[in-house]
Each structure stands twice: as C-alpha cells, then as structure tokens.
Amino acid sequence: MTLLHIDNLRVGPGRSAPIVEELTLTVERGETVGLVGESGCGKSLTALSIMGLLPENLRVRQGRILLEGQEIQSLPQRKLRHLRGEKMGMIFQEPLTALNPVMTVGSQITEVLRTHRGLSANAARARALELLTLVKIPDAEARLNDYPHQMSGGMRQRVVIAIALACSPSLLIADEPTTALDVTVQAQILRLLKQLQQEENLGLLFITHDLGVVRQVADRIVVMYAGSVVEEGRVDAVLDAPRHPYTAGLIAARPQGSFAAGAPRLADIAGSVPAPEARPDGCVFRARCPRAQSRCEAERPALVRAPTGRATRCHFPLTEGVPA
Amino acid sequence: MNPVLRTEALELHHATARGALRAVDGITLEIAKGETLGLVGESGCGKSTLARCIVGIQNPTGGTLSIEGVHPGTSRATRLERARNVQMIFQDPWGALNPRLSVERIITEPLQVAGIGTRAERRAAALAIAQKVGLSPYHLERLPHELSGGQRQRVSIARALVLNPNLLVCDEAVSALDVSVQAQVLNLLLDLQKELGLSYLFISHDLAVVRYIANRIAVMYLGRIVEIGPAEDVWIHRLHPYTQALINAIPDEAARQDDAPILEGDVPSPVNPPSGCPFRTRCPIARTECAESRPELRRVGTHEVACHFADAG
Questions:
Q1: What's the ipTM?
Q2: DSSP B43-103
Q3: Contacts of A177 in chain B (CB under 8 A)
Q4: CB–CB contact B251 A153 (8 Å)
Q5: Which chain A residue's Cα is nearest to B264?
Q6: Closest Cα of chain A to B231: distance in Å?
Q7: Region B140-157: what's the mean pLDDT?
C-alpha cells in the first residue's frame, strides 16, 4: 500500500484563489521524494496540509490525503494528534524556533514518548538517550540536560530529528531542514537523514529550494510552481534533461563557473512568481516563459504522465533540450 | 594608485565575561578599483563583523583601515566622506528598508543627509539611479511592502549607489532571494560594476555565487583569513584543508557524491579558540606541530595560505 497518497488537493482561504491546486503526489516506504520550488509555490503548505497544521484561515477545499490508505484530511484534531508522532513526524527549517527554549532537550524528547507511548519517566529517558545516540550526538547522556541555546545549530537540528523519530513514524516530512545551517553542517545532516531513512525504511518527503540538495537525497523530484506541480520524475532524469521550461530555467539560473574566467551571464527568469490572487489564466508560468504561445494563454495545460512516471504540465515541453 | 580599501591587521575584540571574543582577529587585505573580493566562511567566522568595521557601523579595536588612501576619522564630516565612498547592501530586503517611507524617499535620503542638491535635483537623481537598477517611476511612488523581494533588493542597491560610492559591501545580498531572482540581481551587480567601475566586497555563504562573481576569494575561519587568492585558482587548486572541506561540502547539482569526505564537528568558540592553528580540531591532516604554533599566511603559488602543511601532500 502506498504510504502517502495526495490526490488532487486544493488548499486556500476560500472558494477562489487557491494557494495549492490540482496537487497529486505519492511517497512510498523507503523512498525519498524531493519537493522543490521557489518561495510561494505552495510546498510548505503542502507539508502543513499533510500534518493537519494549516493556519486557521486556510483549509483543504478539495481532494484527499491518504496515509497508509486512511483518509486524514478531514480527521478531527484529536485523531490527527495521535497520527502526528506515531505515523508521521516533521522537521522544520529553524531548529531554534522548533524547540522550546525553557525545556531541556531531554524533557522535550521524553514528553513525546510519555504522551504517545505512555512510557514511565525512566523508560522514556532511556529511549531518549537511545535516540540522541541514533542521531549521533556525542556525549548524549550529558546533552540530555542541555537547553537548546547551549547547542550549535547542527546539534539542535539533530535533536529535532530525534523528536520526529521518537515514536518510529513511517513518514518523515522535512521542510528545508538544512537551509539555516552552514554548508559543512548541512552535509552532516543530509548524510544522517539518508542513513536513518534507510535503516528505518522511512518514507521521506524532503522540501527544499536547493537543487543540489535534492540531487543528493532524493529518488524522485516533484517541481512546483505557483501552487501546482509542473514536472515530476526520477531525480537524475529530471535534472539532467528537464522538460518543463521552468525546471530548465531554475537549473540554468544557478551560477556555474566564474564570470571573470569567462562564464556566461546568468540565464535569469524574467519577472517574479505571481501572488495566488494574481495568477493568470491558462498556464501560470506563461508570463515568464520563453516558449509561451497563444495556446498557453487560452488553455491551462494538464499534468501529462508517461508510463515511466515522468510527468510534465506544459503544452510545448522541451525534449532532450531541443525544442519539440 | 591607492587601492579602494586597505586593512592592516584589523581587529575587533569584544570584552566578555569569559574573556576577549576575537570576532575579527588581524585581517590584512586590499581591494583594487573595479575588483570584487569574495569573502566566505561559516557563520560566526567574523565576515559580517569585518564588513561592519569597513563601513563604519562598528569601530575596530586594533589595526588600521584606509579608504582611497585616507584613514577615516570619527567627526561628522569624515563620516559623511566615508559614506560617500563606501556603502552597504544587507541580506534582508525587508529589514533594510523603512516600511513607512516611499521608495523615492528611501533613495533620496542619503543625498539629503549629505546635504547634496535641491529637492528637485535629488528627485532627478533618484529617478536616474532607479532606472539604472531596473525600477520604473511607478516603483518610486510605492512603499516597500508593495514590492517583491527582488524589487526591494533593487531599491537597496539604488539607495547604496545614489551617493556614487567606489566600494559596495554586499553582505549576503542575494541570499534571501529565490534562484530566478537571484540571477537577475547578480547580473545587475555585474552590469553596474562594468558601467561605474565599482569595487565589491561580496560576502556570502553560497560558494557557487562567490566563485561566479568574484575576482579574488578570501576564506575566513575564526576571525582570520586562512586562504586568499585569485578566485578560480583558490577554487580549483584549493590548498587549505578548510577551503577544501567547504567546497567539497557543497551539494553538487550535477551528480550524487555519496562518498565525499565530510568535515565533522562545529566551529569552536571565538572566546576560547584552540591553541596554535584554530582549525586543527577539525582538520584531517593536523599534526602535533599544529597545536604548538599558529600558521601565518604565506605565499604558495598565486595565493596565500595559513597552514603548515598545505603544500605537503
């Protein structure tokens, strides 16, 4: 059974101007799916929808979210609360705000175990120690008594990961988990996440704006633009030969080489992402797209899926880098 | 010709309860006219503090600094003179702009403070510089919250350029921007440099961006420069183990690198740095000698490196 199946999801403040629309996404056990896109594309709201943590003014307006076959988008908070932690855990971008500054690291981990598992204080502490060792925090026993501010950014993110994994969930959602970290610490955390994912056979939904990070961690990639999926496929296939002009633009916009040593000007994407209430008719990317034609204005392209699992939402996709 | 900027053994030490915090600990560097010096290093290495000392937001506690050959004083006149030579762009285009001022007021304010021109002349100057950075007269009437992140960063650049400075200090100036917009702003910075002969001190944690835009790269660790040289040379023939670790840690967009060696541990506290070489506690090639004496910058080929064994293997 598919671990996570999101089917035609629509999230927004009301009937009009949805922030996320027509979103279909699956994550299998043992698989890492990289969800990428620029700010405002709806990738974080997708994560919050799954966790049932949407802000009060936003709701799932349409579609279903299935976790191990069970519909969860309309569950009451009491039942969702049980699923969060037990079946799905989440890691956030900024570990300092994700942790409680006035509780020790140890008590933040044992709190989860005592609430969800009903463990005794001693048993919870023993398991907390196990978890800190699992996320490779040196001198774990002493660190249980530390407060978050006494730890470095990388160590704090390890604690957040330990809390997310406390009840052995099957799905882990990581929302920009390394964006706030230095590049050397990012490499440590990425390696840790990959290793834990394999050991625990986790389904991992990894949200990031960094294509380099996706290449390192993901099996499949899902590219979002202005609330919709525009391209999806095996990570190597998509990044080596993008079909959607937006994916191609994202890859080309990253600096390569040195300008002083002869590297070309950067291929920027003109304009910026439209706000949800200002999205154009037809293809949402057409105003910024170098390949747009009149059909792109008249008709919103559907996400066309090939038998290989490769999917593209474009009337005039690129084929092997050559115009079709 | 004088370099636009020269620092000599520049220091900024803070007194703390646990001893001196050596945020900037003896930085000697130069930036020539029309040149971009890229400054990289992990958070807490002192790169932003160095930037603030150069602009004059913080006062160094030791060493010397000269801008266009002149040591800046602290009187109002010399501070204004410095501001006309050196300006800064900050990381967060939300926090850097006064939310209650129109874009035109934001851009003309430096001229007003410096007492330059009549009101009409200042407006004309704002319009000219706005067009140069890709903003239209329409944008001048707006408030910052009505603009996108990329447009706000263009306003920051216009405000920094309106006094016609020689040196622009860019502290993580494109880090908060999305990739597609980041490319627009980097192209703009390159165009402006060519047109106006600007020098940049370009600080970023994104090494690919620094490699792209810089002529030379300086790598900082715990308040000191550990390697400095021509950008491509430092990138390709990186000698210091820290530079190597930093560049190896960048997630490659083109290929998976499952077995790349990873630098363990965190940056030590600048209050109580390790004896000898500050990097030795994380260094894969450290030997006993590294704990005993601190390596100074020495020339190896086209660049300088502060390591006892950088060219040994």
A1: 0.86
A2: TTSSHHHHHHHHHTSS--SEEEEEETTB---SSHHHHHHHHHHEEEE-S-TTTTS-TTS-H
A3: none
A4: no
A5: A188
A6: 8
A7: 92
